[in-house]
Structures are given as structure tokens and as C-alpha cells.
Amino acid sequence: MLTPARLSPADCVRVGGFGLRSRPVRVLLSALGIAIGIAAMVSVVGISSSSRAELDRTLARLGTNLLTATPGQSLDGGTARLPEEAMDMIGRIGGAESATAIGTIDGVKTYRTDKIPKAQSNGITAAGARQDLLKSVGATMARGNWLNEATGEYPVAVLGATTAQLLGVTEPGPDTRVWLGGQWFTVAGILAPVPLAPELDTAALVGWDAAKKYLGFDGHPTLVYTRAAEKSVGRVRELIGPTANPADPTTVKVSRPSDALVAQQAGDKAFTGLLLGLGGVALLVGGIGVANTMVISVLERRGEVGLRRSLGATRSQVCLQFLTESLLLSALGGGAGVVIGSAVTAAYAATQGWPVVVPPWVMGGGVGSTLMIGGVAGLYPAVRAAGLAPTVALAAT
After folding, report:
1. 149: helix, coil or strand?
2. So what's the pLDDT on residue 329?
3. What are phi and psi of 311, to 5 degrees?
4. How far is CA 162 from CA 10, 62, 131, 200, 202, in A?
5. pLDDT by residue (tens digit) across 163-203?
6. pLDDT for 77-134, tens place per residue?
């Protein structure tokens, strides 16, 4: 009795690939159907992820992790003061990424010239500022330069956006000066509007050391900004009061975490559910397409099956042939779908100005899940082809 030859994995791929090569148009159309399904899944997930990344970026700009500490009321009903070391101590809290401060100087106003009556101050305050203020509050310069180690010790000021507008200052420079605390300060720069810290828009900021030297600043911060790791916002908020003023934590007012953080967390949950639902529907559609293609292929190729069986091919080899075809077809469609979906995501995100985000798990999962669905979908047609008797298959042609 003759023993049927065993097919190696390479033989299986060649036999399965021959079936695809012999019908290129059908294979192209079938793979295109799968590719469209997978591309739809990848592009929907990619566009949603890009949109979520843009939302996260916007929420981050709004300061979901920014906390502020200000002096509250003392026991005698007056206004308490934050210790001079408050900023440094808050910066040492575990989970605090940065801490900086400003110190508003009582009674010091800012004027365009020394000829303007003191009562016409327009509410423009003066404050000492730390040099790392911009990074912590996310502020940027509209014109000129921020304070540095050199200018922070001399009568140099940076104006907030509203302050510059009220004073009529449009260009900073060595020849641009403002009357601040009874002396001239050179304007080094103008801030862009700061959404997270609107109090900076109506202030004239000078260096921390210059404020002490020229304006009689006592060194007590009036507002401490703290950036915390998003996962530690709640814990850092609880520790700011006792850390800033261990002797009397109740005199420290700490802001609530931004409501944007709650919105961000709710958005993440909603997007996750949406992506899982859309991905499942796309895979189901792709699997049905593979099964339909393979069933039709078996019906059309009964003559080939009968011929192979009459020449000695076993049922398992016929089954393996059609199963391999199904997997190759799925891989072809899945790979093309990932490429098309990624391209659609990149094009759409570019038109919207969003960051392009296609999660790696979507690309890998798209091909992998297509192979899995293709294997399951091709199993029935493969078993059906293997079950055909040679005489019946040949008689049907």
C-alpha cells in the first residue's frame, strides 16, 4: 500500500498560493473586501485615537494637573502669609513635578510714566517672579525675553498681556521703560495671555531678588503653582497645606483639581468602549467576507478537488490547502487594510491639525485577528472540500 507524501509547511504555502495566483482577479476583489473592512477598523480607531490625543493635549494645556496654594485667613481674621520656604517644601512632595511662585508686592503699582496720577493705576500690580515660572504655568513670550539670572537682579520687568495693552507698550527693549514702585524699570518682554494663570496678564513681573532689592518685597510668596503627576494630583493636593505651613495648615488655601481632569477620564472611558465596539463589528464583517469567498471557491473548484483526490491527495491535504488559501487571503487583505487605514488616519489627522496616532495594537491586532477570523471562516469550506468524494467532485464539473 502506497503511503501518501507528506506536505511540508513550504509545500502548503506553495499549494495554497497557487490557488490564489490562478485567480488573481477574484483574489484581488476578495482581498479588497477584507482590506476595506480592516481599513475601516484601523482608520476609525486611528482617527478616534488621534482625536483623543488632541483632546488630551488640549486638556493638558488647560492644566489638569496644576494646583495653586494661596494664603488664607489667620485665626484673628486677618490675611495669613505663606512661609518663605513654602515653594521649596511643596516642590519636595512626592508626585510634585515642579513648584514655582510669585509674590505680589502690596502698594506697588505700575504706570507708563511718572506723570500719571497714582490713582490711575488700572489695577496693574507688581510681583516678584521665579525664573521657572513660564514652564510651570505653561506661559509663553509674545515678544522679547523672560527674566534670567542677570536681569532678575536688576530693575527689569516683563509685562503681562493685558498690562502691556493698558500701558500702550507694544515692543520691549532697552529704550522701553515703565514707572514701577517709584523708579524706572526696563521692559524686557511681554507675555502672551496665560489661560491657566490669568493673574499674570494684569501684572508687571520682576525678578525675585530685584523685587526685594528695589521694591521692598518681603520674600513671602502669595501664590505657589504646583505641577503634579496626574495620578498623584489628589494626594499632592492633600499634602500641600501641611507641607507649605506645618505650623498652621488651615491658613493655606489649595485649589481643586481642574474639572478638565474629570472630563479627560470620562472621555477615556467613552473612547475605549467605542473602539472595542467598532473593532468587533469590523472583524465580524471581515470574517463573513472570507467565509463567503472560500465557500464560492470550493464550489467553483470541485473539479480540481476531485482530480487531486483521484491522484492520491488525502482529505487532510485538501483541507490544509483550502485552509492555507484562506489564511493567505486573510493576511493579504489584513495587511493591505492596515496600510490603507493608517494612510487614511494620517491624512485626516493632518487636515485637522491633530497628532497622528495609530496604536500599535491596532496594526498588529488587525492582521492577527484577521488571520484568526480567516482561519475560522475558512475551516468550513476546507472541511467541505475535503469531504468531497473524487467521483462526485469530477462528476460535478
Report:
1. coil
2. 80
3. -90, 5
4. 74, 19, 21, 9, 5
5. 999 999 999 988 999 998 889 999 999 999 987 788 899 99
6. 777 888 899 899 998 998 888 899 999 988 888 888 888 887 777 778 899 999 999 8
Non-local (6+) Cβ contacts of 203 within 8 A are 102, 104, 124, 125, 126, 127, 160, 163
Average pLDDT in the 47-59 region? Answer: 76
pTM of the shown model = 0.55
Give 352's Cβ-side CA count (13 Å radius): 18
**What is the chain's length?**
397
Q: Which three cell numbers stand for residue 391?
A: 467521483
Please name the amino acid found at residue 130.
R
Backbone torsions φ then ψ of 102, nearest 5 degrees: -125, 155
Give the torsion sign (CA, 26, 28, 32, 34): positive
**177-180 and 183-191: which strand pairing?**
antiparallel
Q: Report in angstroms the alpha-carbon separations of 363 from 39, 44, 268, 303, 366.
A: 10, 12, 20, 38, 5
b/e map of 79-97 (b: 16 or more CB within 10 Å)?
Answer: ebebbeebbebbbebebbe
Q: Are strands 156-159 and 203-207 parallel, antiparallel or unpaired?
A: antiparallel
Residue 109 to residue 210: CA distance in whole angstroms? 15
Cell for 157? 520687568
What pLDDT, on a 0 to 100 scale, did the predictor assign at position 274?
A: 64
Closest among 326, 349, 260 to 46, alpha carbons compared:
349
